[in-house]
Amino acid sequence: MSQVPIVEANGARIPQIGLGTMTLKGEEGVAAVKAALDAGYRHLDTAAVYDTERETSEGLRLSGVKREDVFITTKIRQDDAMPDAFARKVDECLANLKVPQVDLLLIHWPSKTVPFHLTIGALCKAKKEGKTRHIGLSNFTTKMLDEVWNLTTEPFVCNQIEVHPFLNQDKVIEACEKRGMAVVAYCPIARGKVPGAEALDRIGKAHGKSAAQVSLRYLTQRGLIAIPRSTKPDHIKANIEIFDFKLSDQDMVELNKLKDNNMRVVNPAHAPVWDTP
Fold this sequence. Notes:
By secondary structure, the chain is of the alpha/beta class. It has one domain: NADP-dependent oxidoreductase domain (TIM Barrel, Alpha-Beta Barrel), CATH 3.20.20.100. The protein is 39% helix and 17% strand. The chain has an 8-stranded parallel sheet with strand order 3-4-5-6-7-8-9-10. Strands 1-2 form a two-stranded antiparallel sheet. The longest helix has 15 residues. The radius of gyration is 18 Å and the shape is globular. 46% of the residues are buried.
């Protein structure tokens, strides 16, 4: 088992591969979390709206891995952006996870109706009260990053955004890096669109790896953190086995060209106006 590198960002130390738990419900979800921890994952990503925090907690318990050895992230959605609702939801998340503190608490989506200073204030308060070690953002644009950094009393350690080889996120990635923030890539395999992509398949064959592993390696080689989701133990294991090979400069150039597709797989009605390339 290769050692998973750590990304350091504004005081946080985040394992570069984590398990995304969206839709990992019930016994299948518990089994997936345990399989990930058994395979060497030490980073679990959940959210209030996923309703997978209990499964995450139970999978961790069954794995026998110590709580302090696992980096746990949860997220609060825009429906709970007002300070009182935000605080209640944080307490609910901690109760579901059966922990007094998470490692990272994120604003899941920027609210279109609640002023940022209210939600950012609530996020900072959760950190000051010891309910989270670190705070961060998810789905924030470059313009929003400019705004919220002027409002926070605590450093943001990451922005969790959709990133995979078919989407150009260079602007927002650069804006995060300028501020010492990590970028956590969700949907890093583009919800199953990576397997079967000719360039990824071909590069994978040359390295004895799958297209999905090439996609994850491409992201981590760029210094990003990836949180692939899977229910299948063999896929969960394969997704972490990406640090024993390196993509060549030529591979990276070819993969970089794929982002001209600018294909987004997550774009709900509540999404902000995204940055354009």
